[in-house]
Design goal:
8 helices
Length: 531
């Protein structure tokens, strides 16, 4: 495939020197405000045209399994994704005592038990919330089952030495089902997410005549059977089962939580199980001695209303079950695929191979890359534009951020580390290296990945031209990983944010149709050739 020739530089060495100073200054200036190289520079100096190459092969791969016992948010779903197909997720949750050997007073009587699942939400105006990480608008019911599956913290290992943490994975539901009771202990009325946009007013008793009214963010609340928790908690007061969490989780193994759609639409939601309000709350009344001012006076017993919490600070496993229709089992490794599929969870990631043109001497380095290495060049800027396939997606499948990484080393690129736009707010962080989804030109929505430092290493330092991976993410600031298994075992882990962020998108690839030729993946480099 032909590549564009660089215009020859002016021969005057002084002009060349001035040009290099201007370019370097433009790249190193502005900690907060940045501009793309080549824009708004001194008008009297004409930069050489961009070097463009479409010698790129890009294709998609399936993630079969991800570790889901170490996530910071969990999904519940029964949903048909318009691009990928049916997806169902559930949670196997291990409850822990908020207080061991708790003082329940005298003659405690359990009044009610409530499961609380707080949504990720934000207040957009007075008394109006917007739910985050919710897709689909169909009604569903929430079902809760008692689990008898023991979730251990440590892996016995081949020698039985218990030195490694036990991991659990997204595809283990068939293994766990025999230990989950078949009849739910509780089931909600039909839930419509449209009803969860206003604060929840909750009335709680704190004494015989004292009542508190709370205004809370949106959450699902479901009453659980009192008889079960009388058996599990109040009947065990003073027993070893409540003396430690290790004893308790061995006695009461936990809950299995799922949603079931009503009708065809369904919904997919994420919940914050680490929220202080998440868990199971026991509301009970008990007798406690009242306060006396005279030491000789015998204190009388008074009725008190108390609460006791079981939280989700134990092991929680997200379990996925899908019937995805996107087949990534046979990618085109010669020309790449027409579309690139990126989906979180146990979904899809994509691979990009750069500088894939002819290799006449068979040394593993393409003629194009070798030619660039043989020149004395300065890489001022390098970027890849990835266009959204808007015909193949809808609003559900439009993810704001994607992340690129070195597959060979399983790490982010040097551009990620050096990005001066890194900040605490994920939405506006690292926008130079990992440009968010934007509608910037006549070609439509695209991501711009600036990989200048990486390309500079490949060309000028003979660094390995590695395969690059693409994944969706909901937080570019977090690069921690969890174990994963792919169809070809090419990667052994994926970003944790990708594992727990189950949305997906579709991009134009490296083998586009003729009408979409302009949206084909291209690498554009601003080069200065020094003679």
């Amino acid at each position: 495939m032909k590549k564009k020739k660089l215009n020859p530089m002016q021969r005057n060495p002084i002009i060349k020197f001035v040009l290099l100073i201007v370019i370097s200054a433009s790249l190193l200036s502005c900690d907060e405000d940045f501009m793309e190289t080549g824009n708004n520079l001194i008008n009297t100096i004409e930069l050489p045209p961009l070097y463009e190459t479409d010698n790129i092969i890009a294709y998609s791969k399936r993630v079969n399994q991800v570790e889901t016992s170490n996530l910071t948010m969990h999904s519940l779903a029964d949903f048909t994704d318009p691009v990928y197909g049916d997806f169902k997720s559930s949670v196997l949750a291990q409850l822990q005592l908020s207080q061991t050997n708790n003082d329940f007073g005298t003659d405690p009587q359990l009044d009610s038990v409530t499961l609380t699942l707080p949504f990720f939400s934000r207040l957009v105006e007075e008394n109006v919330y917007e739910l985050d990480s919710v897709y689909g608008s169909g009604e569903f019911v929430l079902k809760v089952y008692r689990s008898n599956q023991f979730l251990r913290n440590l892996n016995p290992g081949p020698d039985g030495d218990f030195t490694e943490m036990q991991s659990y994975y997204s595809d283990q539901l068939p293994e766990f089902l025999p230990n989950i009771e078949s009849t739910p202990i509780a089931e909600s009325e039909p839930i419509d997410l449209a009803d969860y946009t206003t604060p929840l007013s909750l009335v709680q008793r704190s004494g015989t005549e004292s009542v508190d009214t709370l205004s809370l963010s949106p959450r699902i609340r479901l009453n659980l059977p009192v008889d079960l928790f009388n058996e599990v908690i109040l009947d065990k007061i003073g027993s070893p089962e409540l003396a430690s969490n290790a004893n308790f989780v061995n006695f009461f193994r936990g809950l299995y939580i799922e949603v079931e759609r009503i009708g065809q639409d369904g919904a997919s939601m994420h919940f914050d199980l680490n929220n202080d309000d998440a868990g199971v709350t026991l509301h009970y009344q008990t007798q406690r001695q009242g306060f006396v001012t005279n030491e000789e006076e015998e204190p009388e017993f008074e009725t008190n209303w108390n609460r006791f919490n079981l939280n989700f600070e134990g092991i929680n496993v997200n379990l996925f079950d899908d019937s995805f229709t996107v087949d990534a089992s046979n990618p085109n490794l010669e020309e790449g695929d027409e579309n690139l599929y990126l989906k979180g969870g146990a979904g899809y990631y994509s691979v990009m191979e750069l500088f894939t043109g002819p290799d006449s001497d068979g040394d593993g380095v393409s003629d194009e890359l070798q030619d660039l290495r043989d020149r004395n060049v300065l890489v001022n800027d390098a970027q890849i534009d990835l266009y959204l396939n808007e015909e193949a997606t809808d609003s559900i499948n439009r993810v704001n951020r994607i992340i690129v990484f070195n597959i060979d080393k399983n790490e982010v690129l040097i551009d990620y580390i050096r990005d001066r736009t890194a900040g605490t707010l994920p939405a506006s962080s690292r926008v130079s290296h990992l440009g968010p989804l934007m509608n910037v030109d006549s070609l439509g929505l695209r991501y711009r990945l600036r990989i200048t430092d990486y390309i500079n290493q490949v060309i000028t330092q003979d660094s390995t031209n590695a395969k690059l991976g693409l994944m969706v993410t909901d937080n570019v600031n977090v690069t921690g990983s969890v174990e994963a298994q792919t169809t070809d075992n090419q990667i052994e882990s994926i970003f944790r944010q990708t594992a727990q962020f189950t949305k997906g998108t579709v991009l134009h690839g490296s083998n586009t149709s003729e009408e979409d030729e302009e949206k084909r993946i291209k690498l554009k480099i601003q080069l200065t050739e020094i003679n």
